[in-house]
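queue> pop job 88
queue> type: inverse folding (structure -> sequence)
queue> payload:
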């Protein structure tokens, strides 16, 4: 085979160079830096801190401009905490809408007496107008909720208060630009004493999961029947992998086995009574025939 001449070789090298240049435009050199997503995503999430107690002395301003401390909202029932921001265009409004719908469908529990929801903006530059607007927009989804300002307040605060609160519950978020944050979709269920009881993830929670989390946080002391609540909690457990409540098969089997033993005991007792009455009945029959 003959040697390739210089001109064709130069032409081939030229084509390869042009091709590599074009590919460099389509696939930029990753060694030159990271995208915004590469830098943001690892810093957004939740470090679960179950049992952590909120600093209830933190002071915020509600939707009506009143200064309130977190302790004001912990008066005997569990509390759902949401951390959002009021200028959020998509994620936060969807969370508020879905949470309102879920609350409306929960059977046996009411935000008017059994629990509260507290929303705190993670934006230290939050404005009073945005807080009022977001509060009114959300309350209209729950027309039956009396005193909405007390049962579901929309709070804003300064950076130190917000940072202390979010670090306590382990929420990590990133400010991308003014009025724009990357944050996880999560609600936090708190005990009446202000301790973290459960994290529920996603844009929407099922009524069953939310109800069980509230009952669990309250130790069963909400709703119409504490006995029924204890039975429900015995039958369900929280699956940390699936991040939802599931039936506890072993406990269900225990209840079923106990029911079988109880029925068997009743049957044996009834047979014993019949057997005991048998000789007496026979003696009475013989006495009557003599």
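queue> result:
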């Amino acid at each position: 085979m003959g040697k390739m001449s210089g001109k064709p070789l130069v032409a081939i090298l030229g084509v390869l160079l042009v091709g590599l240049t074009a590919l460099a435009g389509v696939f930029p050199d990753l060694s030159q830096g990271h995208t915004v997503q590469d830098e943001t995503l690892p810093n957004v999430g939740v470090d679960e801190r179950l049992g952590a107690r909120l600093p209830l002395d933190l002071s915020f301003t509600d939707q009506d401009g009143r200064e309130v401390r977190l302790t004001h909202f912990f008066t005997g029932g569990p509390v759902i905490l949401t951390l959002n921001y009021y200028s959020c265009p998509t994620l936060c409004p969807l969370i508020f809408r879905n949470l309102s719908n879920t609350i409306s469908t929960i059977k046996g529990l009411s935000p008017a007496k059994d629990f509260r929801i507290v929303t705190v903006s993670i934006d230290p530059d939050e404005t009073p107008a945005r807080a009022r607007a977001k509060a009114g927009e959300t309350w209209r989804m729950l027309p039956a909720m009396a005193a909405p300002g007390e049962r579901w307040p929309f709070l804003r605060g300064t950076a130190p208060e917000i940072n202390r609160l979010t670090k306590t519950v382990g929420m990590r978020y990133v400010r991308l630009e003014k009025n724009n944050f990357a944050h996880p979709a999560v609600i936090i269920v708190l005990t009446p004493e202000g301790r973290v009881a459960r994290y529920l993830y996603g844009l929407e929670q099922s009524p069953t999961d939310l109800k069980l989390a509230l009952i669990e946080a309250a130790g069963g002391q909400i709703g119409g029947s504490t006995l029924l609540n204890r039975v429900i909690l015995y039958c369900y457990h929280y699956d940390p992998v699936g991040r939802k409540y599931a039936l506890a098969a072993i406990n269900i089997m225990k209840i079923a086995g106990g029911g079988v033993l109880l029925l068997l005991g009743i049957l044996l007792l009834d047979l014993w009574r019949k057997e005991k009455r048998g000789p007496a009945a026979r003696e009475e029959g013989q006495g009557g025939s003599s």
